[in-house]
Design brief:
By secondary structure, this protein is mostly helical. 39% of the residues lie in helices and 7% in strands. It contains five helices and four strands. The strands form two sheets. The chain has a two-stranded parallel sheet. Helix 2 packs across helix 3.
Length: 111
């Protein structure tokens, strides 16, 4: 039986598009999972964006900490150290995090 595991390296289709888009998010700004999904041509794939970021092959290069949920909430299981680490990384870039949320009206990046 074939395993149904998404390809997860930077050179493969959907994940590659996710990584390329997230790399463009400027320091001090955030985007939502749904925003990334729509930008890469898969508007109903916000959860898959989360999975791609969880499999980030280049932590520190691909700034997955700049991706939040549709309400500005941090990832409770941020793959590289938890929500506290995501908040710390965002704070270091000047993004204010209050009680686990980012104000999207102030920090959301739009192309």
């Amino acid at each position: 039986m074939r395993e149904r595991t998404p390809k997860n390296n930077a050179g493969d289709g959907f994940f590659a598009r996710v990584y390329a888009y997230v790399r463009r998010v400027p320091e001090g700004r955030v985007v939502t999972y749904g925003q990334v999904a729509a930008a890469v041509g898969a508007p109903r794939a916000a959860r898959q964006v989360g999975w791609a970021l969880h499999c980030n092959p280049e932590p520190g290069v691909i700034p997955c900490h700049r991706v939040v949920n549709r309400f500005g909430g941090l990832a409770p299981a941020f793959a590289f150290g938890g929500a506290e680490e995501q908040a710390r990384l965002l704070g270091a870039e000047g993004v204010e995090v209050r009680e686990g949320f980012v104000d999207l009206t102030a920090y959301q990046w739009r192309e």
